Amino acid sequence: IVEAARSTKLLARDVNSDIKTLKRGILAKNGKLTSCELGVLTNLASVVSADCLDFSTGQNLDSSASYEVLLDDGIDGIAGKYKVDAVTVHSEYNPTTKANNIAILEYNKGQSITWNNTIAIKREFYWGNMVYSRSSVSDLDSTAWGSNNVLDNPPADDSSCNTMSTLYSGNTYDFTCMADTVASPSSYLSPCNIPYGTVYTYIDNTLYLAGFYSYSSVTGQSNDDSNGGPLCGTGTVRNYYLMIADWTLFVATRLDTKMLYFYPHDDNNFPDLNVNYALTPPTTSDKAGVSLAGGDYFKDQGSFVTSTSVEPSSLSSSSSETDISSKDSSSASTAADDQTHKASESASSTETEGPATDTEYLSNSASNDNLLDEKETNNNNNNIDTDSGANGSSSTHRTIIIAVVVSFVGGISMVAGLFYMFRRWNRSRKITIEDPVDRAAADNLNALATDSSDYIDSSSQ
Questions:
Q1: E strands, 135-227, where?
Q2: DSSP 3-72
Q3: Tell me: the pLDDT tens digits for 87-144?
Q4: Distance of alpha carbon 16 from the chain centroid
Q5: pLDDT tens digit string along 133-161?
Q6: What are 217's strand-pairing partners?
Q7: Are 323 and 330 in contact (CB under 8 A)?
Q8: 3-state secondary structure of 115
Q9: 190: number of CA atoms within 13 Å, CB side?
Q10: How many CB atoms lie within 10 A of CB 327?
Q11: Per the confidence metrics, is the pTM higher than 0.90?
């Protein structure tokens, strides 16, 4: 409590310049730009709203769709466009309620981690101003980035955020909410304003990645696109942004790589340690007249996902975790325990599930200023190790090698021991047989056996 209340020296800052210290990303689908911005994690992976993806039937991804990520020149000065190699959708994603609206995009497979964005955790402590950003790309082929619209420190979530979304009201720790929207990069792409794409937060005057746009609640208008889209009418709109913090381990374990997070001054605080982290599903329907919208709002793509108010009995989802690699789809289900952080929980309040080594997937940048110098490669999935080198795949490999060597030496020792015991036993047996006393007794018995014919009655033969 004392640490959380400590004073912070305020410095003059340029938000746009601070954003350039991080990597921004936008999703392209089937060769066209979308309004979907990414929570960029590393040069190998990002997270995005699952609403931005195409599904064939149910929760099965459409294998005919192709995706690319566009990354700006932040951090390393290199902008680029990269084909998405694999997609993993959260196993409990529900397009109707927007619960667990998160998917992992993998690209540059087989390469090493060369840079990363740092994820802010523990929202209830230290987080300062929230910064909302809408990026744009002026040329899809050359990946030329346009202007960046920024909203610094908007008003706090209002009461309408709760009343317009039961998902939000049951998971306020995992979302931020606001009414503000921003002009589309072009009126051709969208005739009306759209939500901001990415959320950042300041901690100790440094900007960190916080979240990305998830969905919007709309009242007072139809959810068809006859007027340009679900956000183009005159109804009331609230926009919800998913915070990445407690999904950090969920993402890291799916990628089998470390994720870099930030929590100042305390190495013993982690993001949520549930590898199957999921939101608390709504138990009641949204109020009448409320529609939920999400996905891509650019009209030439036309893939925004809308849903109207539904009855509680139809709120559950049986979606499965799905991987698509090289346009081949396969699915695997995981049993996820519902667990939600509330803002009133203390910084140390977490529930640990999964392997005891879950924290090997996490690195706190507060205790490690040069993680990339210590990265290890594990079957082309790269892990960022901590300063101590005690965590991560390298220590796991060393442990396995040591165990194999010890087992081999132990096996040889056991064989040698058995051979020695056999020789001792065999030698003692021979000594007993050759004992002089026993030999004399044996000779006497032989002599008796030789003379035994004298005692045989010939009449009995």
A1: 137-139, 144-145, 149-152, 175-178, 198-203, 206-219
A2: TTT---------HHHHHTTS--EEEEETTEEEEEE-EE-BSSEEEE-GGGS-BSSTT-B-TT--EEEEE-
A3: 999 999 999 999 999 999 999 999 999 999 999 988 888 788 999 999 988 778 777 8
A4: 28
A5: 999 887 787 778 887 899 998 887 888 99
A6: 238, 292
A7: yes
A8: coil
A9: 26
A10: 12
A11: no
